[in-house]
Amino acid sequence: MLWYKAWHESKTRFLYVMAGMTVLCGLLVFSYGSWGVDPARINYSGFIWQALYFRFFHAAWVFSTLFLALGGLAAERHHGSALFTLSLPASRRRMLSVRAGVGAAEAVAAAVLPSAAISAFSLAIGHTYPVIPGLEFAMLLAAGGMVFFSFGVLLSTLLPGDWAPLAVGIPAIAGLYSLTRHEPGLRWLNPQDLFSGAAHIQPPMWALNGTPPWAAIAASLGIAAILLWVSVILAERLEF
Q1: What does the pLDDT read at residue 96?
Q2: 167 in any annotated domain
Q3: Using CA atoms, how far apart are residues 6 and 22, in angstroms rounded to an integer?
Q4: pLDDT mean across residues, the chain
Q5: What is the pTM of this model?
Q6: Which residue segment(s) compose the domain that 159 sits in?
């Protein structure tokens, strides 16, 4: 019941995200010829990594996790439907855990499935892009970036309404990226570098080469777990 409810409430957002991510990949691939890429400097695989996994795909997925994290008791209280949810035979901890589980699965799918479509789009324009490297980049982003989804769950637990978490979360994440990009002492914490594999790839293959940033992934997942734990505590203390 709870799993179906969580999926039913989030499926429209998920489908929007999936469609948006897939269209983004298609637009970047089909516009390849208009970017003026010099093949002597960077090959097609390099273009895909730089344009998508380092920039547009990366940014779109990170901000999409906030969208997928919307909902929960605070939002339902705002809409006047929280009492029905609270009447279900389940604890608030269980409700939030199920909602987070469904949202996390949707976030992973939103990284992996559009990424797999890049190979098909590439064939349509006469280029090839291997499926495996793309999936590796997508999984690296999903695993390392799960902290942003958990941050969205926390904001959705704290803030009422549908859009307040986005209004707070988007500037906060953008600020984090900007600060860690432009402050030399914090550059090693920049999520764009860490979870795009920037330090672990090299031309001409433009694929992950060597050991992924396991420490950064573990730290991100650890922080994500802490944020979810805090969200559970706050949800249990909400008054209706």
Answers
A1: 87
A2: yes
A3: 23
A4: 89
A5: 0.91
A6: 2-31+42-237
Tens of pLDDT, residue by residue over 63-115, are 999 999 987 655 555 555 555 555 566 687 888 899 999 999 999 999 999 99
Supply the DSSP string of 129-190, one letter for each residue. Answer: --HHHHHHHHHHHHHHTHHHHHHHHHHHHHS-SSSHHHHHHHHHHHHHHHHHHH-GGGGGG-
- When divided into structural domains, the chain yields a total of 1
Tell me the CA distances in angstroms from 20 to 1, 85, 86, 151, 163, one per residue in order.
29, 30, 33, 21, 19
CA distance 58 to 70: 20
Nearby residues of 20 by Cβ (< 8 Å), 6 or more positions away:
60, 64
Is residue 99 assigned to a domain?
yes
Residue 208 DSSP SS3: strand
CB atoms within 10 A of CB 182: 10
Separation of alpha carbons 8 and 15, rounded Å: 11
Distances (CA, A) of 64 to 61, 146, 182, 196, 208: 5, 11, 24, 16, 24
Q: What pLDDT is stored for residue 72 in this prediction? A: 67
Biggest alpha carbon–alpha carbon distance for the chain: 64
- Smallest CA-to-CA distance from 46 within 201, 210, 209, 212 is with 201
* In a domain? residue 153: yes
Q: Compare 214 and 6 and report the one with higher pLDDT.
A: 214
Instruction: Give yes or no for a contact between 121 and 25, defined as CB atoms under 8 angstroms apart.
Output: yes
The DSSP result for 46-61, as a single string, is: HHHIIIIIIIIHHHHH
Looking at residue 86, its pLDDT comes to: 55
37 in a structural domain: no
| pLDDT tens column, 33-70 | 899 888 888 999 999 999 999 999 999 999 999 999 98
